[in-house]
Amino acid sequence: MNRFFAEEITDGKAYLSSEDAYHLKNVLRARLQERFEVCDGESKEYIASLVALDKQSAVLEILEDVTVEREPKRDYYICQGMPKGKKSDDVVRHGTELGMRGFCHVISQRVIVKNPGDYDKSDRLQRIADEAAKQSKRIRIPKVMDAIKLEELVRSAPKDALRIIAWEEETELSLKKCLDAAGDPKEVYILVGPEGGFERDEVELAKSYGWQSVTLGKRILRTETAPLSMLSAVAYYLGDME
C-alpha cells in the first residue's frame, strides 16, 4: 500500500501536498475510495480512503489508526564532509532507511566548497529523504539541514549527545569501546570526513569540544560507506534494531 505524509490532518481528514496530488493522479492513477497509508510526520499513521483529488490537491478520509512504533528511540544525525558528485545521495537514502533523524554536509579543509551559501543541493537531498521515508515506512521524515562549517558543527552539537568522529589515524579508541562507555544517549552525532578525510587539527578541534575520535578497523572505508556502517553499528549496539 502506497504511503504519504500529510501536510495537515484535521477533523478526520488528511490533506496532501500538490506534489503528492500530482503523483496520485498522474503516476498511480488513483481512484476515489482507494486506500492508502497516511502519516502525520510525528507519531501517527493511518489507513485512509481517497475522497477528493484534482491537479493541485488530494484529500483522504481517515478510516483506521494503525500506528506501529517504527522510529528509533534515539535521534541519529549523520554529518558528512561534503563529497564530490552525488555520493551523498545514497547516504541520505540508506540513512533514512536505517533510522537517521537528520543529515548535514560539513565544510572542512579537504572539500571544494568553502562557503555554505555556495551550496544548493539540500532541496534535492530532502526529496530523496522524503521518498526513502515513504518506501521504508518511516513515520518521520529526516531533515536535510543546510551545509555547515566544521568549526560551527563541533561547537554547536549538544553537549549531552554522543558525538563521534571517524578518523583513520585513531589507533586507541575503537567504536565498540566508545559505545561501551557511552551509557544511554538520547542523541547521536556521527561525523565522517570527505574524500581524503580530516586534517589532524580538525580532529583535535572536535575533541576539544567533547567529540570522540574512533577507529573503524584496519580497512579504510569510503566517505559514502563509513557513515552507514557507523549508523548501523551504533543503532544495533544501542538496541534500536530490535
CATH architectural label of the largest domain: 3-Layer(aba) Sandwich
Element pattern in H and E: EEEHEEEEHEHEEHEHEHEH
> What is the strand tally?
13
* Average of per-residue pLDDT values: 93
Pick out the low-confidence regions: none
Helix share, percent: 25-40%
Relative strand content: 25-35%
- Biggest sheet features: 7 strands, parallel
Query: From the alpha-carbon coordinates, what is the Rg to the nearest angstrom?
Result: 20 Å
What structural category characterises the helix and strand content? alpha/beta
- Structure annotation, total helices: 7
What is the domain total for the residues? Answer: 2
**What's the shape?**
elongated
- Reading off the top of the CATH hierarchy, the class of the largest domain is best stated as Alpha Beta
Full CATH superfamily name of the largest domain: SPOUT methyltransferase, trefoil knot domain
Separation of the first and last Cα atoms = 24 Å
Q: Multimeric state of these chains?
A: single chain
Q: The CATH topology of the largest domain is what? A: Alpha/beta knot
Describe this entry's structure for a reader.
By secondary structure, this protein is α/β, with parallel strands linked by helices. The protein folds into 2 domains: 63 residues, Hypothetical PUA domain-like, domain 1 (Ribosomal Protein L25, Chain P), CATH 2.40.240; 163 residues, SPOUT methyltransferase, trefoil knot domain (Alpha/beta knot), CATH 3.40.1280. β11, α5 and β12 form a beta-alpha-beta unit. The two termini are 24 Å apart.
